[in-house]
Structures are given as C-alpha cells and as structure tokens.
Amino acid sequence: MLNLNMMRTTIFLPEEVHQGLKHLAIEQDCSMADLLRWAVERMYQEDLKDIRDARQAWNQHRKNPQKATPARDYFATRSKKTP
After folding, report:
1. Are 32 and 21 within 8 A, CB to CB?
2. What does 1-58 look like in DSSP terms, one character per residue?
3. CA-to-CA distance for 22 and 31, rounded, in angstroms?
C-alpha cells in the first residue's frame, strides 16, 4: 500500500547503477523504490531527525507558546554535527 504522505520523484541513474539496484532488489525481495528510500533515509538520518524534531517543537509551540525555548538556548544546547 502506498503511503499517502509520500511524494513522487524522478531520478536518473547510470545504467550500471540501475541494473545493480534491480538485482539487489530481487536479492532482498523488495522494490527498487524501497532500496532508494532506505539509502536516502540512512544518508540523511540525522538531518531528517532534526527536521522531525523541529516540526514537533513547532507543533508544541503553537499549542503553548508561553513555554517556548528561546532560539539562543536551543542552539546552545544542540549537539554539534560531525561530517
């Protein structure tokens, strides 16, 4: 079943990469789309977590703005990213 929160996108892959993904999908018994989603999520896992955390914080702020953490305090406590 397709997740309704997903967006469709098109990417162009070199033929060799496409064929490799196709074979890997068969070996893993999943779709090429599943493999690509997994790879993107793994690559950007920390960034995606930051986005989810920011959305959650924004939703909480909208419900109760008087309890908001000032941006300076938030960024002072935020962990440093390592490349």
Report:
1. yes
2. ---TT---------HHHHHHHHHHHHHHTS-HHHHHHHHHHHHTHHHHHHHHHHHHHH
3. 8
Tens of pLDDT, residues 30-72: 999 999 999 988 888 888 788 888 888 888 888 887 877 777 8
- State the Cα–Cα distance between residues 58 and 56, nearest whole angstrom: 5
Token pair in block for residue 50: 């930051």
Amino acid, single-letter form, for residue 40: V
The residue whose two tokens read 């893993």 is: 28
Residue type, 67: K
Q: Is the pLDDT of residue 77 over 90?
A: no
Report the Cα 78 to chain-centroid distance in Å.
Answer: 19
